[in-house]
Amino acid sequence: MSHVSRCEVTIEWGDCDPARIVFYPNYFAWFDRGSHHLLDALGLGHDTLIEHYGVVGVPIAEASARFLVPSEYRQKIALESRIESWAGRRFTILHQGFRDGTLLLEGREVRFFGVPHPEQRGRLKAVPIPPDIIARFEEDVR
Fold first, then answer.
1. Stated pTM of the model
2. Which residues belong to the active site?
């Protein structure tokens, strides 16, 4: 188990489709927010990643979601984000949305730490995850 980052999302009118339930792409924007909150909480914001690791981005390689209970206009979602697994040059972040203790949705993002590609301008290259970054997440829960 690793550090859990929590943020609250209040569903606005513009987040909904004509049926007044959340238009599904908005969940992915909230997952992204949760990922950045998670990294920031452990001192791994963009400035630190650039200055200490040369990492210029933490792009998504894969994303998925399961929607269990619909959410509607003006409701609140408690979004929890945590590292689910580390795998070589990639890591998976699990996002879970709750309301009153009920699991509403679950999403996963597979991300990597990207540095400028040495041979292909404008592209990023995945680098091995620095052990001290993994340690920050593991130490936080002890």
1. 0.91
2. 17
